[in-house]
Amino acid sequence: PCTDIHLFLARGVASYSNSFLPTLSNSLCTSLPQNITCSYQDIVYPASLDDYCDSVLQGVMAGNQTVTEYAKRCPESQIVLVGHSQGAQVVGDIVAGGGGVVEKLGCKQAGSVGINPGSEVGKQIKAIVLFGDPRHVNSAPYNIGSGSDFNGLFPRTSNSLSLLNSWIPHIRSYCNFGDPYCAFASQIDATDSTQHHNYEDKWMTDAVKFIKSEL
Predict the structure, then answer these.
(1) Is the per-residue pLDDT at 190 higher than 80?
(2) CA–CA separation, 184 and 4 (whole Å)
(3) C-beta neighbour count of 50 within 10 angstroms
(4) Contact at 8 Å (CB) between 57 and 110?
(5) Which molecular function GO terms apply here (predicted)?
(6) How crowded is residue 65: how many other Cβ atoms within 10 Å of its Cβ?
(7) Residue 113's Cα: distance from chain center in Å?
(8) Span 150-165, average pLDDT
(9) What is the pLDDT of residue 188?
């Protein structure tokens, strides 16, 4: 059913039950006044490392379809997009377009078109939150965290970054120093993913506060 606020969640390379994003959604929804209805759904996609580029593309296509269909069916709803890890790339590509060669993984992602914030669907998207985005670009004004000054494994192209920047100030991208995916050059041991999996502990409260400020 249509609700006042609806979140779309894109998990990282983990099962749905192991993702912390539903915890974030529940934290947000339970903190709202009782007369405000709030719900969430997962963007259904493989979230796989085996065929990374195809996995991301499937997520972008599924996300675009479900977000667009929901927005048209529920024109009064306010929409929030949240993604972690590969899911952060999916969410970023949904709004900013994606595609290109991922050299470090040896694959090529097909191109996709983003969502203009001035479009009918775009006007319903009130907040975008990214955690550990592999397409992180250093020093963007919406970057938050100790990894803000580093690039991800495969930073966005200039065209995609330009469209992502058009979503300012409705976007926030969290990146920790030592996260080998969003802050690739910030650590020597790229196999240590501790800083990639502690966003719930470090930033969930801040993210919920940001989303509420945008609604």
Answers:
(1) no
(2) 38
(3) 8
(4) yes
(5) carboxylic ester hydrolase activity
(6) 11
(7) 16
(8) 92
(9) 66
What is the amino acid identity at position 131? F
Model confidence, pTM: 0.95
Angle at alpha carbon of residue 208, lines to 207 and 213, rounded to 5°: 95
Whether a cis peptide bond, with omega within 30° of 0, leads into 169 is yes
**Antiparallel, parallel or unpaired: β 98-102 and 125-131:** unpaired
Distance CA 81, CA 95 (A): 9
CB atoms within 10 A of CB 192: 12
d(CA 184, CA 187): 7
Using an 8 Å Cβ cutoff, are 37 and 113 in contact?
no
Torsion angle of the four alpha carbons 204, 208, 214, 215, in this order, in degrees rounded to the nearest 10: 150
Phi first, then psi: what are they for 66, rounded to 5°?
-70, -40
Q: Which among 192, 208, 191 has a CA at the least distance from the CA of 200?
A: 208
Report the pLDDT averaged over residues 137-145: 96
CA distance 18 to 7: 18
Contact criterion met (CB below 8 Å) for 11 and 48: no
Could you give the domains of the chain? 5-214 (3.40.50.1820)
Residues found in the chain: 215
Cβ-contact 136, 172 below 8 angstroms: no
